[in-house]
Write the structure tokens for this entry.
Amino acid sequence: MSIRELQALAYKQSADKGFHDNEPTEGPELLMLNSQRIALMHSELSEALEELRSGKAPNETYYPEAGSFGAHRLYKPEGVPSEMADVVIRVMDFCGANDIDLESIITEKLAYNATRGHKHGGKQF
């Protein structure tokens, strides 16, 4: 799938689960909603940090307990990779909700970044 297709899927799944019901389209309510969504992106990064702090490897996925969904047993993936996936899913949902073509802007930013100097002028990280 392309980034554009993944973004559409992330937004659709979120909408299908009711996260876009009765959304404001302008004004301070929309600002508040978008601010909350950005805070949730940040919280997923914090969860990835906590996985590292608890001793998990950056590429380790684990399945602590099984849940159930009808006749199926489901195992929720945990770990840094899962939290990073959550970050990307939340970003894609945000972009879908705000009519941002994430694939195009990623391509544009990568092209711009290719023109920047080594370590962008001496930055450490």
